[in-house]
Amino acid sequence: MISRFETGVYPIRRGDFMALIDLYGVEEARQREILLQLATEVCTSTFSSNGGGNCVEVAVVAA
Hints:
This protein is mostly helical. It is 52% helix and 0% strand. The chain has one domain. It starts with a helix and ends in a 17-residue tail after the last helix.
């Protein structure tokens, strides 16, 4: 299932995304912000037909 998130086949929810970057050991706040922003951009552009309803939200960034 994780590969579906990683390849953009399935939209990822914010909580799942944050858990995944924790698992990968991404600790630097700036890196986390960049990855979250990229995930949001990909998700909203890829899944715009449903309004990006299950996509990550860039407004809330956990350190």
